[in-house]
Write a structure and sequence with these properties.
Length: 283
Amino acid sequence: MPVIELRGIKREYRMESKSSSKNGADAIIVRALRGVDFSAESGEFVSVMGPSGSGKSTLMNILGCLDKPSGGTYTLDGIETSVSDSDTFAYIRNRKIGFVFQSFNLLARTTALENVELPLFYRRRGKNEDRGASWNRSGSARKERATTVLREVGLEQRMDHFPSQLSGGQQQRVAIARAMVNDPAFILADEPTGNLDTGMTLEIMGLFQELNKRGKTIIMVTHEPELAVYTKRIITLRDGELVSDEQVKERRNALDDLAKWKQDHALLSEQAPAEQSPAEEAS
């Protein structure tokens, strides 16, 4: 069964024009999504692409259960979201989806470890879960889980640092760890490297590829084709419709590209033996 399954998803917005009458006869209907069909199996890494106004953001909001469709069905990990109430929506967002944003969204006065622990404080109990189950973690269990995930993203030496003490790439690693801490059904990443330079971008894409290799499902919204080649599959939206759905034929390895980028920018010099000067050779 797919982790994500959308069938006939529509999203329409009703906008009142200045000349519209009281009965709304002249209201403008904006059709942001026009019957999108899309599914993703466990372990996929999918890019969602399209020009401005194509419906990417609308689709992301529906995938993230931040908005409901006007029509169609969206089943996430066996839960039919389009008929869910607000409590179920909150449970889905907390337990089933790990969000990663362009702007990191970390709490400035909170350490990396505490930022990652935060979703566990708000961990919601499913309808079929016992109140004494592992969802209701003790403080020590929350800390242990957050520590484990920070190690997985390579930040075991930065757990007590505040966001201002971390680089942009390290802050995004904290955000990814926070997204993973509840072991969600999938990670939803919205332009996750938009605020990063080339080297940090390749680091984050390498981390996503590693997480995907371990079985994590990732949906990434991006407008950059050079990032989409690190994923496994690309879907493209235009005017609210899904116009293409293709496997990436020549998938690139982000960490290999990172090593080459560092070499090209002479950032590996500290790892190479220093050349001796003529005076040192003569001594």
